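Researcher: Re-running this chain for the archive, since the previous output was lost when a drive failed. Same request as before.
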Amino acid sequence: MTEQIRTSTRDLEELHDRVAAWLRGRVGSPVTVSELSRPSGNGLSSETLFFTASWGRERTRCVARLAPAAEAVPVFPSYDLRAQFEIMRLARGKAGVPVPRALWLEPDPGPLGSPFFVMEREDGDVPQDLTPYTFEGWLRDARPQDRRRLQDATVGVLAALHDAPFTRDDLAVLTGSGPVGPDGGRAGEGGLRAHVDEQRAYYEWAHGSLRVPLLERAFDWLEAHWPDDPGPDVLSWGDARIGNVIYRDFTPVAVLDWEMAALGPRELDLAWMIFLHRFFQDITESLGLPGLPDFMRRDDVCRTYRDLTGYEPRDMGFYEMYAALRHGVIMARVWRRRIHFGEQPMPGDPDDLVLHRTTIEELLSR
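Model: Regenerated structure tokens:
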């Protein structure tokens, strides 16, 4: 889990000159751009660039998010940078979520080779994916009461987002040109149904003729255990996990990565946050390490959410299975990208493309 996974095929030196030329046109004056760098430890989808830009008396520390190049074997079939940009502004402005200030959107792929947007960079601590925070690091070493403070504050981000007074016009960026229902969801269909159908289409795109039987069994399980009442749709962050948050003093100061934002039940985000910790915890325990077994437990997370919103999360077993399935489709795609770049061989059993195969098998057996 400590090796670097290739996520880009672009040359930083060439990108530097193109970033400088583009920004000069944006601000209308000479610009100095620092050396570009990429983050380490987190992020497997959109390409992220760090740089500092200076012009006149301005000096801004920036983060650019680019749609990946086709030859980089993208994780997702499309990257709607405009939707991400607008949702970030909405979450910051209407929900009070600490999202970095969105600065510029560039929909034209010409300047850098793909569409991108730029936001302000925030400093702080991020729980690492590589090596997982359950193995070592500042969160692992923190006092239990500080970890709980971080957990509750992060659940508070979901509560604020889900309870925000978004209008139908606000959320039209996620619904396209189709009619929008009175609760913000698409008219004539529930957000959960649309969400699962889109995930099935994503699975078909990500793996083509290669079948992953474990994931198909999980899709069948969902249909057999569909909730009687999925509840109202809200704006879902999508990739709601602590690895997408920058913290200072165990408090969220920047909520990142909105490319999976969608409309759907509140439980989508809650279950994703709970499951993504379990994903790392299961890996840690499989290696004989203790990890953080008292962190992000379902009952604790749901209790905090209920206390903050008055809403009682329901059917969490269903949503945790769905989170495991969604993550399985993504991880199988990431692993196939690693195969493409020669970082690992194709396994004999397609189910082994799913890193948390054992966890899904356990959930299916219940």
